[in-house]
Specification:
This protein is α+β, with helices and mostly antiparallel strands. The protein folds into three domains: about 160 residues, Alpha-Beta Plaits (2-Layer Sandwich), CATH 3.30.70.330; about 120 residues, 2-Layer Sandwich (Alpha-Beta Plaits), CATH 3.30.70.330; about 130 residues, Alpha-Beta Plaits (2-Layer Sandwich). About 20% of the residues lie in helices and about 20% in strands. The strands form six sheets. Strands 2-3-1-6 form a four-stranded antiparallel sheet. Strands 8-9-7-12 form a four-stranded antiparallel sheet, sandwiched between helices. The longest helix is centred in the first third of the chain and has 15 residues.
């Protein structure tokens, strides 16, 4: 399998000793080359092109090192034919790993090689499928003049064990969805783990046929993770389905159904019909909620300082999330489920909104990096604020405070 089981053919020379360890400027023979077009134009400022020459790599193995990551991407790009023929040497310039959160930023010498690297999403390193994404500072408009933004055709992805169609990462792809489809794409969480994909699909298709449906499952066991994503063929039923499904009781769980893009418009408040008009499904196992670094009460409870804002039903949580992880549907779903379980300890939740990065918007996403939890009453919100403020998450101290309900409703975070 080659290095770390990456699927690189046997016999390929994989050396980590010469992996780059810092920024030393353009590689030899590259000083006057355009990052994307190679010699057609003078080099723009290196810092100005950096956003288009970097990738975010998530879900890294815990034992991986920066030289190993550099060697992996160097060899993988060589194997699939993703390097620039006019340049000799390796394409990777630098690797930075956040060991605590298991993600890395990898910088390449050209925009073209960086775009080819995007085809490596789902490649396996040391037995774990990695996620390869554009970084949060990637500017689509600015990058369009620097070089290709998509992987070139004809890459030999099978050389590293990837399906050319990009199916190695598992689950459904969004490639066939239009922008309008994505705007109506729904997240469904709180599913009992015994429900199969066919059973969940039958449930959601009570409101109409779906264009795309995905129940997220564990890669190793194949068991449901309790959430999924779907899009209706008829977008006019999206809100109707939210009203009918959100809050539906299934055993000891309640469904969360809302738009997936940027946390959506928030799930509608359950109507009387949706709250009591459906038979509960028994048998759902209660799963221990955990939120890394947050779950578990501190040894000494320290009440938060008085809020400068009036009490409301909505609590804002900051310093909790790695924005890059929100790009990935699986990570987003797990975060949403963890928040629903953890925050649900303090009262009945009406809706949760977690804004997601949107590279196509061309502007900042309001509230990005924060979690907004709307409770059915102020007592639940107050309990959550008192319990979560000051708790540690990923080495950061969580800040919890109220926000105005009208602000939450209008998404003017």
């Amino acid at each position: 399998m080659g290095i770390g089981g990456a699927g690189i053919p046997p016999g390929m020379n994989v050396s980590v000793a010469g992996a780059p360890s810092g920024f030393s400027g353009p590689p030899p023979g590259y000083a006057n080359a355009h990052p994307g077009n190679l010699g057609l134009n003078p080099v723009p400022n290196q810092q100005a092109t950096r956003h288009a020459r970097r990738v975010y790599v998530g879900n890294l193995p815990g034992t991986v090192t920066e030289p190993k990551v550099a060697a992996f991407f160097n060899n993988a790009l060589h194997a699939i034919g993703g390097t620039v023929a006019a340049l000799s040497g390796d394409p990777c310039l630098n690797v930075y790993i956040n060991y605590e959160k298991k993600f890395a930023f990898v910088e390449f010498r050209t925009v073209e090689e960086t775009s080819n690297c995007m085809a490596l999403d789902g490649a396996v390193l040391e037995g774990i499928a990695m996620r390869v994404r554009r970084p949060n500072d990637y500017n689509v408009m600015a990058a369009s003049s620097l070089g290709p933004s998509q992987p070139k055709e004809g890459l030999n992805l099978e050389a590293i064990g990837l399906n050319p169609a990009g199916a190695a990462a598992g689950g459904a792809t969004n490639a066939s969805l239009s922008e309008e489809d994505l705007a109506h794409r729904l997240f469904i969480g709180g599913l009992p783990y015994f429900l199969t994909e066919a059973m969940v699909k039958e449930l959601v298709e009570a409101f109409g046929p779906t264009k795309q449906f995905q129940l997220v499952v564990d890669r190793e066991t194949g068991n449901s993770k309790g959430y999924g994503f779907f899009v209706y063929q008829d977008h006019s039923v999206t809100d109707v389905a939210c009203q009918g499904l959100h809050g539906m009781k299934m055993g000891e769980k309640s469904l969360t159904v809302q738009r997936a893009m940027q946390g959506g418009a928030g799930a509608p408040k359950p109507t009387a019909a949706s709250a009591s008009g459906h038979a509960a499904l028994p048998g759902a196992d209660e799963v221990a909620a955990h939120l890394a670094g947050v779950s578990g009460a501190p040894a000494v409870s320290v009440p938060p300082p008085p809020s400068e804002r009036p009490a409301s039903r909505v609590v804002s949580l900051t310093e909790m999330l790695d924005v890059e992880e929100l790009r990935d549907d699986v990570e987003y779903g797990e975060i949403m489920e963890d928040m629903r379980e953890e925050c649900g300890k303090f009262g009945r939740i009406e809706s949760i909104v977690i804004p997601r990065p949107d590279d196509t918007a061309g502007e900042a996403v309001p509230g990005l990096g924060k979690v907004f939890v709307c409770y059915e009453d102020q007592a639940g919100a107050a309990s959550a604020r008192n319990a979560l403020h000051g708790r540690k998450f990923g080495g950061n101290v969580v800040k919890a405070d109220f926000i105005d309900e009208a602000v939450f409703a209008s998404r003017a975070f």
